[in-house]
Each structure stands twice: as structure tokens, then as C-alpha cells.
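User: Sequence for tRNA (uracil-O(2)-)-methyltransferase below. C-alpha cells please.
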Amino acid sequence: MLAGARRRAVTSSGRARKGRAMELLREACVRDPLRRLPGGFWEAVGVWLERPQVANKRLCGARLDASKPGFGDEGKLLEGAPWEALRASGCGEALGLDGGLQEEEEGLEVVLRTLVPKTCPPAPAQEMVVKDIIKGIVTFLPLEQTHEDKYKIKKCNVYQIRLMHKQDNEWSISILSSPENYISDGILYPKITWLKSELLSKLAKWSTEIIKNEFKSTLSLISVAKYSKIYQDLKEKYKEIVKVWPEVTNPEKFVYEDVAIAAYLLIVWEDERAERGLSKKQSFVDLGCGNGLLVHILSNEGHPGKGIDVRRRRIWDMYGPHTHLEENVVSPNSLYPDVDWLIGNHSDELTPWIPVIAARSSYSCRYFLLPCCFFDFHGKYNRRQSKKTQYREYLDFVTEVGVVCGFNVEEDCLRIPSTKRVCLIGMSRTYLAAQENVLEEQRARYINRRQLCGITTPENGSFLAVSDATDLVAEDEVSEELNVDKVLISGFLPRSKEQMRNCTTLPQDFVDRVVLKVANLLLNETKESSFGNASTWNRGVSLTLGEVAEHLDKETLKTLKNEYGGLQTLLRNNHQVFEVLNGKVHIRDWREAKLPRKNRPANQVKQRLPSKTFKTRLCWFYIHHPHGCPLTSESCQYAHGTEELKQTSIGTKKK
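Assistant: C-alpha cells for tRNA (uracil-O(2)-)-methyltransferase:
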């Protein structure tokens, strides 16, 4: 433990004038009834070291470049390296060392890490982190590189975290720094107030709570710095899709989630090409591709591939000819011998089959899986282990399938806006190509066993890591022959082509007729309403969905009844014309959507208009409203006449 003199921040005025003293910013009292300290403190420090984005949302993460114990000869790297800069800095007092920094100092561990921001600028920053395990002190020292390619400790933004035992199960965690030498940029170096409140409170919480983390840290298999750059580039490149999203799903979630998945795959594939000495970009097939955005991004980035789904989406027509999407049914017997990678992104009932399909397609085929809904080979997945969460148990099952199929399965956690973020990657095999026939039989037996008996794991474990072909099949099953193709399709019911029932496949003349009918109803019923008439432009009235339905004929209502959401869905799909709030419908006034946050005249505010989607559709109000469009042609994002129409173009490939 620290001596009393070391427990306090240095307050000597002489030392303060040298700029080396650190003041106590704040101290948090911690009760430790479970006796987790001091070990829990170092676990909390480890979270802040390795995953700083958990606390500082403006960081993409951190990269630990090196870690060496002590400052002896084995702690040195190259001449002029950061280790030498630390030893030559003379910052022993700041580190809590009475005699300065000595060669023989024990109990010290030095970590070199790089902080990676989400956006650039600022550029990534390096810092030395000195952990004094015995005294419970960790110090963060920013680095800067000189013109001679050497490093030196910066005089600003140094801060320290200290643990102190008071009595019994009472401890304190404190943050120290030198406010006059702390220059915050709000990203890499948050404000002093943030260190005192946010960081200190999180460290105190993490130090005493028992965290059972079932999953790996995010992006553990790739470079965080590389991911940050590629993700930001893709996000900027494809952000326009959010503004023209024709589906009823949330564009913010689905667009940026697929951008994140694409960024991850691009790095995995780039690393694979470098490791294997490949120059040609990998090909892929996305099984159960849904909206097809992931296929669109990967194709635009130069990877040949296609997506297959049982149902066509409206947005497919917007991608252009370079994005290959196919409406079809995928079965376990579907093979892709010429494809490098199979992708299963929330692929539902196909999820456990994708490792099987990849293994049978070719010896060189790999797969990427992002499991979501819990499916077994022949229906819903049934839980068998109550000590695990359902999600963890299912991931273990899908991992087991990959191992049975002969893959070395790796697990990672993505940074996506979803609760199901763990991906499984089968990149290499555990067996030789000559053993393929034996593996084929093993896969069939495993699938057949799950269908007939529902056994989660064979008791003899005969399918585990493969080193000898004779170990692949249980002895009591060697004599029994199985028809592999028959086993694969037995009991599996592939999802048939679905019929769209969200009003998107209704005849366009029918939709136009209903929209015009409802709009005229709202406009013709105009009277003193809750919306009022602030100008001569007719804003109409607000009516409930039931009141609107009373004015529609029986055949129209019958047609809408067969659609999910019925009348409400149709009106919400036509958001250019209507707003549906709390069960009431009214005409959308685009002047309200354009009002600035501050009360300034509209003509003094520069409106942001999407560069690639502006004027790609006709303005309904310009054509049908008795007073025309409330906006001018310059400020309305829709075309006032066919002469203003522009061709839709989203995320097209650059020539």
C-alpha cells in the first residue's frame, strides 16, 4: 500500500512551478463487501486501457502496441523508442516514485497504446501507460514524435488514477492531473470535468461489480484503426441511401449496420489476401440477403458476388445493374463451388446450414455468420443448458456445427446497433482435402442424429478437432451408410417465396386512387381544426383512421384488410402526402419540416438537400393540391414538373 505521503497529490509550490505536480481532481469512496479489490481495480483499468470506447463514445477504440514489465534491458526496444523516452523524461515524481525512475524499479509495467478516434481529424494519438501494481497507481503519459523519429513525453494532458485502502472494506479511487497543463480536444483528451465525473464513476463501478462477459471484445480479430477509417469512408459514401429508403424498416439502423458489417468484411478479406499472397478480390454469395444493401456495398467495393433471398425488396431496383440480387429459394443442397465466401447475415433458418453448404461447396470455400434468430437444422432451436443464456448456447451450437464440418471457427463481436452482434468465421479447415469423403459422412451423421434424437453434443465427442481420419466417425456407426443428399433435405422446409403484404405490391393506380381520395377528404372537410389555417395554403383537417375508413368503399377496404396494417400502412408509405400520429391522419406541411431550430426567417437558413436524391420524384402537392406546393421549386426536394426530374443514383461505382 502507499505510504501516507504517496497517497496525497503533491502540493509543494516548488514542484508545481516545475509543472510536474498533479492535483487531486476528485476522490470516490468505494465499498468492497465482496473483497474484489485490489484485483477488481486492475480489471477496471484494463477495460479503460483496452476498450476506452466503452466510456468515451467519441473513440473507436485503442490498440495496444506493446507491453513490457520493468525498465531493465528487456524493456528496451530500439534506440530512441518510447521506452527510452520514458526513462529519460525524469517523471519519477509524477509516477509516485520517491527516488525518481530507476533501472531496478520493480512492480512496474509499461504499456504503449494508440487511441483511435471515431472521426479524423484528430489523428490517432500514442501514449505511455505506466502501471505500478504494488502501489496501486496508473499514469497516462501522452507521447509526441520528434523530427529525429524519436519520442518524448508531452508536458500536457498527463493524468493518473490511484487506488487507496482506507479501512476494512472501504477504499477510494482518485483522479489526479495538472489542470493548468491539461488541454482538452474533447475526443482523444476529454475535459477535466469528464475525467472527474464520468471516468471516475465508471472505474469505481467496474472495480467492485462482478462482470460475466460471455463474449470477446469488439473487433478483436482486426485492426481497430483500419476499421475506423474504412467505416467512416463507407458511411460518408452511402449515407444518401438513408434519405431514399423505400422500405418500412428503420433506415438509420439497417443502413449503418450493413455499412459496419461491410467494413469488417473488407478488412478480413484484405488481411486474408495479404496473408495468402492473393491479388484478386474474393467472391461471395449472401444467402438470405434481405434488402441487399450489404451485397450492394461489397460489390461497389470491387468484390464480385450476389445476394439471394426468397422475397424481392423495393430497394433492389435502386441499386443499379452492378448489384446482382436474385429472388429464389435456398436449400441445403444448393452448392457454390466457384465462390470464395458464403455470408449469412441474420439468415434465420439457413444459419446452421451455411457451414454445411460452405464445406460441401469446395475445400476452399469459407463463411461468415451473424446469427440472430434461433434455428436448428429442422426447426426452432430447443434449449438444453440452463446455465447459459439462450444466445450464448445458440452461438456454441453454431460453432459446433462449424467444427463438425471441419472448420477452425473464430468468434468476434461487431460494432452494430443490434443486440445480436457476435459473428462466427470459418476461414480454414482442420482436415486435408483427401479426407473430404470421411468428413462428408460425418456431417450427414451429425445432422441425422440431431433430427432423430435431438442430441446437442455426441457423448463420445468423435467429431472434435481432426488430426486422423479414423477419429471422425464413432465406431458403432462406421458400418452404417447414409445417403448424404437425402439426409440434408430430409425434414428441412425451406422458406417459400413470400408474398408482400405491406401495401407495397398493390397496383399503383389503386394506391394513387386511395391517396387522392383521402387527401380530398381531408381538404374538403376543412373547418376550424387543431392545426388552424395560418396562411392561405389549405392544410386540411385531422381525422381518425376510423373516420377516413367510413368514406372508403367496401371493395377498397376489403383489399386493404388483406395487407399488414391496412389503411394505416398505405398512408404511412405515402409519407410525402400524409402524417399519421396517434391514430389520426392529416396532410403533411413541408414548411414545418423546413423550419430552423432557432427562430430565424426561413430565407436566411441554408437548407441541406441530398445531392443524389434531389428531384428524383414528382411533387404530389404541385400536381394535386388546389393551392399547389407550399414550398418553392428551389426548396422542395421533389420535382415540380417532369422537366425537373433527375435519375436516381445511390452509391454507384466510381469509374
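Residues 45 and 499 are 53 Å apart (CA to CA).
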